[in-house]
Amino acid sequence: MVRDLKRSQWVALILIPLLSALLVFTPAAQLFTGKQLPTALLVMAGMVLFATSALPEFISALVILVLAMLLSLAPAEVVFSGLTSTACWLIVSGMIIGIAITETGLAQRISSRFTRYLDSSYARLITGIVLMGVMLGFVMPSSVGRVMLFIPIALVIAENLGFAKGSKGQQGVVLAAAFGCHLPTFAILPANIPNMIMIGSSESIHGWTPMFTEYLLLHFPVLGALKAVLLVVLILKLYPDTPQRMAPVQSNGGFSGRESRLLVIMLATLGFWLTDSIHHISAAWIGLAAATLLLLPGVGMVSTKSFNEKINLSSILVVAGLLGIASLINYSEISQVVGMRVLNWLPLAPGQDALNFFSLSLLAMFTGVVATLAGVPATLTPLASQISEMTGFSLEAVLMTQVFGFSTVVFTYQSVPLMMAMPLAGVPVIHAARLCLILAVLTVLILLPLDYLWWKWLGWI
Fold first, then answer.
1. By the 8 A CB rule, do 225 and 180 touch?
2. Which of 66, 215, 310, 403 is the most exposed place for a label (fewest CB within 10 A)?
């Protein structure tokens, strides 16, 4: 049975005992008192499981939650705080909205209408697909759902334009769809799981929840729009091809009643999201209201059967586990013990805005390499108060530096949606891995300095 273990499981079996021994049998153990040491061991083991994917992520989450309760490391309201957070309910609403978009055929209709204007050139095609992916980020707050919806459509588009399976054109279209509906959308508040974890943990730990519009203004121009442009340029360079003109598509009539109702609900939801600075209603409750409408008999488009069959409980458990880690760190005050020593290694000081910004952004990026994207806010949010004191940045600015980290994917294993997209499309993961690495390097060299200048201009630092 031991021989059947995967490489990731072997890595976890080696790392967890090794890191535990280093934590217990070195002077580091003297830093902790009471239940802090077992809490630190559990948090470390959980982050190794998430980083290596030795177990399915939802099982890792359950292991963390169950052990925290069995060992009485924190009260239930702390351990299971993720299930009551806005992040959890944003995921639920995103899944329901995704089911409705798929089952009504609205997404397929809109994509088909867009495609007929994109076949005149390869550059226009790739640009259009990336743009559609970004647009989906505004109306569908689930990166996994967008990938599941958009990749099959992208494959049909590639086939209709004459790209054979395995050709550069097909690979370029797939990568444009997978990366376009994922990476730039980290600049849209409710569009990805790490964003939601950051919302939930900053809300529960620091009592601050960013508004949709302020988040969009701060991050979208550089980490959204400019990253999308950079993505298009890279795909055109790495995967050049020439599309065939698509044959005229016969009209399948106007919008059906179900499509029209869904379109109205989605436009209203988007309108409330964009105006949350006026009404101050959380994006989670707006999304949940839309999802509830979509479930109502006679009004909605999602049947009870579809809900029971297609709602992905594992994503909810993953978020609950990661938020549980953040709450455990905060409750046990481990962040105050470990955080200051880690932060002392960084060149942080009040008045050194550029150095502070680059250090915190790169810290978040490398945290994502170790702990995956979703682990960035779970790991760094509890340290935000100490970092604010060390840098002179506001608490809100410190929290927002995380976005550069979890929106910069260095290796594909960091991102569940990218790991899902490649097998779904039948494209070797090596293509996504190469694009991730090159895009990450260019993001650090080009977008990070521009992001700093944008923050300075807005007055955030």
1. no
2. 66
